[in-house]
Amino acid sequence: MTRQLHLNAFLMTVGHHEAAWRLPESDPFAHIDVRHYQELARTAERGRLDSLFLADSPVLWNSIGRRPAGGLEPTVLLTALAGVTRHIGLIATASTTYNEPFNLARRFASLDHISGGRAGWNVVTTAGLDAARNFNLDELPSHRDRYERAAEFIDVARKLWDSWADDAPLGDKANGRWGDDSKIHPAGHVGRFFKVAGALNVPRSPQGHPLLVQAGSSADGKELAAKYADAVFTAQQTLEEAQAFYGDLKRQALAAGRDPDHIKILPGIVPAIGATEREALALEEELDRLIKPEYALRQLADTLRVSPADLQLDRQLPADLPAEDEIEGAKSRYTLIVELARREQLTVRQLIGRLGGGRGHRTFAGTPEQVADALQHWFENGAADGFNIMAPVLPSGLTAFVDHVVPILQSRGLFRTEYSGNTLREHYGLARPAVILEGA
Amino acid sequence: MTRQLHLNAFLMTVGHHEAAWRLPESDPFAHIDVRHYQELARTAERGRLDSLFLADSPVLWNSIGRRPAGGLEPTVLLTALAGVTRHIGLIATASTTYNEPFNLARRFASLDHISGGRAGWNVVTTAGLDAARNFNLDELPSHRDRYERAAEFIDVARKLWDSWADDAPLGDKANGRWGDDSKIHPAGHVGRFFKVAGALNVPRSPQGHPLLVQAGSSADGKELAAKYADAVFTAQQTLEEAQAFYGDLKRQALAAGRDPDHIKILPGIVPAIGATEREALALEEELDRLIKPEYALRQLADTLRVSPADLQLDRQLPADLPAEDEIEGAKSRYTLIVELARREQLTVRQLIGRLGGGRGHRTFAGTPEQVADALQHWFENGAADGFNIMAPVLPSGLTAFVDHVVPILQSRGLFRTEYSGNTLREHYGLARPAVILEGA
Question: Could you tell me which NCBIfam families the record lists for this protein (chains A, B) (predicted)?
Answer without folding.
Answer: FMN_nitrolo
